[in-house]
Amino acid sequence: MAFAPAPRASVSDHVFGQLRDAIVSGRYRPDETLPGERELAAAFAVNRHAVREALRRLQQLGLVRVSQGGATRVLDWRVHAGLDLALSLARSGDVLPVATLVRDMLEMRACVGIDAARLCAERGDTAVVAALVRAAEDYGSLAPDLDRMAEANIAIWRLVVRGSGNTAYQLAFNSLVAGTFAVGDVPPDTRTAELLDVAGHRRLAAAIASGQGAAAARHARALLTAPVTTPTTPTTPTTGREARA
């Protein structure tokens, strides 16, 4: 397989990115063996240290396994990779070759958010819950600016997840919001039903503050499963939107 020679800047990143994309796209199949370090170094016109560093990063993502003797075997990313792979691709402007990935990540976000809301209501720290209530009260003042509301929405959910006391949820949340859900561009305009539901955010905060776990989960579900719409075109004015209060 022919590879483009690496630019002088970020040589290891270049090697890593091309090998990663070749594996994720299926050009290298699971259980195939990558070329050796010497061959890869020649193909990329780099030194073996840069290749070795790139292979180390691929192994950390769960894309390859370096076996005894130095052979590097390709792994099935659907079995071995985690959210770090999606984040790595989002940072490079690429996404996984899965047509439904944005939908899938939004569904995961909903699952985490719904249960985190329940847990936050049941065991949330008093200071965190108070901050959440204030954030929900201030949220409506940002309407109808969807970009600012999207930022405030993340801040609200960060408090909910923090209040849940679940470290795994916190780490998953960080991955989900990094790089715009870590899967590519999800414009705020696609989430108008969720973002403009000011009353829904207040109901969620109120249920959490009153310790009503089931109600908090219900309000979280209503927000996080709101229809994802087609982005508003540039010719459609945003000032005409009204927040539901």
Describe what is shown at a glance.
The chain has helices at 11-24, 37-44, 48-60, 77-80, 83-91, 101-123, 126-139, 146-164, 167-177, 192-195, 198-209, 213-224, and strands spanning 64-66, 72-74.
Q: What topology, given as strand order, has the largest sheet?
A: 1-2
Helix content: 55-70%
Largest sheet: 2 strands, antiparallel
Q: Kindly name the structural category.
A: mainly alpha
Mean pLDDT: 84
* Number of extended strands: 2
**Bulk shape:** elongated
H-E string: HHHEEHHHHHHHHH
Rg on CA atoms, Å: 22 Å
β content, as a range?
under 5%
Ends apart, CA distance between termini = 58 Å
Please tally the helical runs, counting DSSP H or I stretches of 4 or more residues. 12
**Poorly predicted residue ranges:** 232-245
Explain how this protein is built:
It is a single chain. The protein is an all-alpha fold. Strand 1 (64-66) and strand 2 form a beta hairpin. The radius of gyration is 22 Å and the shape is elongated. The model is unreliable at 232-245 (pLDDT under 50). Helix 6 (101-123) runs antiparallel to helix 9. 34% of the residues are buried. The protein has twelve helices and two strands, in the order αααββααααααααα. It has a two-stranded antiparallel sheet with strand order 1-2.
Protein topology:
Blueprint: H1 11-24, H2 37-44, H3 48-60, E1 64-66, E2 72-74, H4 77-80, H5 83-91, H6 101-123, H7 126-139, H8 146-164, H9 167-177, H10 192-195, H11 198-209, H12 213-224
Antiparallel strand pairs: 1-2
Helix pairs in contact: 1-3, 2-3, 6-8, 6-9, 6-11, 6-12, 7-8, 7-11, 8-9, 11-12
